[in-house]
Amino acid sequence: MKRAALALMVPVMVVASLVLDAQQTAPPDTILTNGKIITVDAQFSIAQAVAVRGDRIVAVGSNQDITRLAGPSTRRIDLRGRSAVPGLIDNHAHFQEEGAYWNLELRFDGVDSRKRALELIRAKAKEKGPGQWVYNLGGWSPDQFTDDKRPFTHEELDPYSPDNPVFLQFSRAETFLNSKAIETIGLEKMNQPWIRRDASGRATGVIDVAGNGAVRNAAKFLDAPNGARANLPMEIIRASSLAMLRDLNRAGLTASGGECQWEDLYREFQREGRGSMRFFCFRTAPGGRGAGAVEKQLAAVPTLRYHDGDEWQDFTNWGENFSGGGGDNLYSATQQPVTQESWDQFGNFARVVAKAGIQALLHTQTDVAIEGKLRQIEKLDKEGVSIRPLRWALMHMEGVTMDQIERMKKLNMFIAVHPREIVTGGLLRRVWGDKALAMPPLREIQDSGIMWGLGTDAFEVNQFRPFQTLYWAVTGKMVGGTVVNTHTVSREAALIAHTRSNAYLFFRENDLGSIQPGRFADLVVTDRDYLTVPADQIKDIKPVLRMVGGCAVLDAAAESATATR
Question: What's the pTM value of the predicted model, to 2 decimals?
Answer without folding.
Answer: 0.93
